Amino acid sequence: MASPDRRAPLLEVRGLCKDFGGLRALQAVDLDVHEGEIAGIIGPNGSGKTTFFNVLCGIHPATSGQIRFGQHADITRLPPHRVTRSGIARTFQNQRLFNQMTVLENVLAGMVARTRAGLLPIMLGMPGARAEKAAAEQRAVELLGLFGSRLTPRRDRRAYSLSYANRRRLEIARALATEPRLLLLDEPAAGMNPSETRELMGDIQRIRDAGLTILLIEHDMRLVKGICSRVVAFDHGVKITEGSFADVRNHPAVIEAYLGHRAAAAA
Questions:
Q1: Which 3 state secondary structure label does DSSP give 41?
Q2: What's the pLDDT at 125?
Q3: CA of 207: how far to CAs of 21, 77, 172, 185, in Å?
Q4: Cα(196)–Cα(72) distance, rounded to whole angstroms?
Q5: Closest-CA residue to 39 (of 190, 214, 222)
Q6: Per-residue buried b or exposed e for 77-86, using 16+ beta carbons within 10 Å of the residue's own CB
Q7: Could you give the CA distance from residue 32 to residue 49 in angstroms, rounded to a whole number?
Q8: Taking all residues of the chain, what is their mean pLDDT, rounded to a whole number?
Q9: Residues 6+ away with beta carbon under 8 Å from 164
Q10: pLDDT tens track for 135-158
Q11: Cβ distance 85 to 29 under 8 Å?
């Protein structure tokens, strides 16, 4: 197992449970995420990974348990917009861009939680909002620049015209526009080819190097192995183990979750 981190966690989850009617989707999950790390969550489909993100972000209210973030602030019962303001941003499995807006406008839309004038006055350049618009556009261009030449030359194109990989990148840029401390990425490499996945790995590492903490869900084990300092495995809503990639990959419970009881017994 990976050696324990003695620093106070940025995110601290204790005993988190989520029920949907008679179905318990999360069962007493404990998880810490520390400042500056890239941690990964793995598990078969239906293991509770996305539900865990949805509860963290306030989309689904927790049935029980506690979520603490930052300066030990309890965010367990906060609605999504207040979770965002607290410093947590996320992307989704299914793309949720404003397809008829430009690349730059999509990033500006992500800034609404941090602006004083509001999104519409800023985008229209109304009096009193022009200085804030200029600063917002400068910051949006900087965020697009995190992805090299993939997004910046396309800043004035409509989002629907981007390639699949660039739409994924734009979603991340829009999430970064909320100025998070913790970025949650839900299957960021889904649908990407190996070359695009390698490029994405570099993107995620640059974002971490810029000062963010990242927790991601991913099925591509090459990505998880390549960039995650710690891996957490879920199955049937339960956290079954955590540690280094090698330790988690070889854990009997993980092998059973993916391949079945016979494979675990053989291992």
A1: strand
A2: 67
A3: 38, 28, 10, 12
A4: 37
A5: 214
A6: ebeeeebbeb
A7: 15
A8: 90
A9: 191, 192
A10: 888 999 999 999 999 999 999 999
A11: no
Q: Across residues 180-194, what is the average pLDDT?
A: 95
Q: Whole-angstrom Cα distance, residue 252 to residue 235? A: 12
Structure tokens at 31: 């998880």
| Domains, the chain, with CATH or none | 11-87+180-266 (3.40.50.300), 97-163 (no CATH)
- The rounded distance, in Å, linking the Cα atoms of 225 and 40 is 9
Average pLDDT over residues 242-259: 92
Tokens 């506690």 -> residue: 66
d(CA 102, CA 113): 19
Confidence (pTM): 0.89
pLDDT at 119: 62
Distance CA(203)–CA(166), nearest Å, equals 12
pLDDT at 111: 87
Mean pLDDT calculated for residue range 54-60? 96
Range of lowest pLDDT (33-47, 111-125, 214-228): 111-125
Helix (H, G, I), strand (E, B) or coil at 59: coil
**Cβ partners under 8 Å of residue 131, min gap 6:** none
Which amino acid does the sequence have at 133? K
Q: DSSP secondary structure string, 206-264?
A: HHHHTT-EEEEE-S-HHHHHHH-SEEEEEETTEEEEEE-HHHHHT-HHHHHHHH-HHHH
CB atoms within 10 A of CB 162: 20
CA 11 vs. chain centroid, Å, equals 13
Distance CA 198, CA 183 (A): 19
Cα–Cα distance, 222 to 40 (Å, whole number): 12
Identify any residues that bridge with 90 across adjacent strands, giving them in sequence order: 184
